[in-house]
Design goal:
Number of strands: 4
Number of helices: 5
CATH topology of the largest domain: Alpha-Beta Plaits
CATH class of the largest domain: Alpha Beta
CATH superfamily of the largest domain: Lrp/AsnC effector binding domain/regulation of amino acid metabolism (RAM) domain
Protein name: ArsR family transcriptional regulator
Structural class: alpha+beta
InterPro entries: ArsR-like_HTH, AsnC-type_HTH_dom, Dimeric_a/b-barrel, Tscrpt_reg_AsnC-like, Tscrpt_reg_AsnC/Lrp_C, Tscrpt_reg_HTH_AsnC-type_CS, WH-like_DNA-bd_sf, WH_DNA-bd_sf
Keywords: Activator, DNA-binding, Transcription, Transcription regulation
Number of domains: 2
Mean pLDDT: 93
CATH architecture of the largest domain: 2-Layer Sandwich
Order of helices and strands: HHHEHEEHE
Low-confidence stretches: none
Radius of gyration: 20 Å
Shape: globular
Strand content: 15-25%
Length: about 160
């Protein structure tokens, strides 16, 4: 499988992306002012960045604290089989668990690093036993509970 070519991004494209990462609801006129363009050219660039797949979507950031979802745990997951079909089955199944915020295939002493967000440790234990432990080919897990989120931004600026 080959990756599509990386789009060429100039200084203005990068400035646009950084501003949108800070505030995706910024009006095009204000965005243009911040990056040194008028509304029409900045809107055209945003549309091009969307068409090229550089901008993949927009979303609301929710307050985990106000929603009562502050419990974060990270799991090391080891599989009993790491052939391609086993990885694909795990990948498909883990995407169905609502409490899983992130899941990364890792090169190292374990196979996946999984970020799980729940209301509390009791709910986490339920998700671990009823969902994660039952994923295809899971041999073992190790849990690390976050005591404090020092920085949690999603995507870094470019």
């Amino acid at each position: 499988m080959t990756n599509p070519p990386t789009p060429k991004l100039d200084r203005i494209d990068r400035a646009i992306l950084n501003e949108l990462a800070r505030n995706a609801r910024i009006p095009m006129t204000e965005l243009g002012q911040k990056v040194g363009l008028s509304k029409t050219p900045v809107a055209a660039r945003v549309k091009r960045l969307e068409a090229e797949g550089v901008i993949t979507g927009y979303r609301a950031e929710l307050s985990a604290r106000k929603l009562g979802m502050e419990h974060v745990a990270f799991l090391e997951v080891r599989l009993s089989d790491t052939r391609e079909d086993s990885l694909a089955a795990f990948n498909k199944a883990v995407r169905e668990i609502a409490e899983v915020e992130e899941c990364h295939l890792i090169a190292g002493g374990f196979d996946y690093l999984v970020k799980v967000r729940t209301r509390d440790i009791t709910e986490y234990r339920r998700v671990l036993s009823e969902s994660i432990s039952r994923l295809p080919k899971v041999a073992s897990t190790s849990t690390f509970v976050s005591m404090e989120s020092v920085r949690d931004r999603g995507v870094a600026q470019i």
